């Protein structure tokens, strides 16, 4: 309902509606927690509703702050580098061949180099010329 009230930001509220909803609910739970609304209720309700006792962040091992090199130091393998260069070359040849084959199949005129250079891998070619 927020886009109808503010009359702007419809794209942002539409894309991030779940994040905004979770943030609003957590803010509401935080306000209820610091105001003392959960002091005289059952322990199960406190564990589920209070933001200081829920243990959601501490109990989830997948929520953590990444730190540099946590999986080890970076490595370089020349074989993998050459394999990626060959894969890029193959992509260049295949996309060029696909363009030429599509133009011949459609009985069109030959493709100019400015169109062929739009293929996969040819993007750096126009900067070199």
TrEMBL record:
InterPro entries listed in its UniProt record: NCS2
UniProt entry tagged with the keyword Transmembrane helix: yes
Keyword Transmembrane helix: yes
Species in which this protein is naturally found: Aegilops tauschii subsp. strangulata
GO MF annotation list: transmembrane transporter activity
Stretches that traverse the bilayer: 12-34
Name assigned to this protein: Uncharacterized protein
Assigned protein family: Belongs to the nucleobase:cation symporter-2 (NCS2) (TC 2.A.40) family.
UniProtKB keywords: Membrane, Transmembrane, Transmembrane helix
GO cellular component: membrane
Topology in the lipid bilayer: Multi-pass membrane protein
Subcellular location: Membrane
């Amino acid at each position: 309902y927020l886009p109808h009230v503010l009359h702007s930001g419809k794209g942002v509220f539409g894309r991030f509606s779940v994040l905004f909803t979770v943030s609003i609910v957590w803010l509401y739970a935080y306000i209820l927690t610091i105001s003392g609304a959960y002091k005289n209720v059952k322990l199960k309700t406190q564990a589920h509703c209070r933001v200081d006792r829920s243990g959601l962040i501490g109990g989830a091992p997948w929520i953590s702050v990444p730190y540099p090199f946590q999986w080890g130091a970076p490595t370089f393998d020349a074989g993998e580098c050459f394999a990626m260069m060959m894969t890029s070359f193959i992509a260049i040849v295949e996309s060029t061949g696909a363009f030429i084959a599509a133009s011949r199949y459609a009985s069109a005129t030959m493709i100019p180099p400015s169109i062929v250079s739009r293929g996969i891998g040819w993007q750096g070619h126009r900067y070199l010329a």
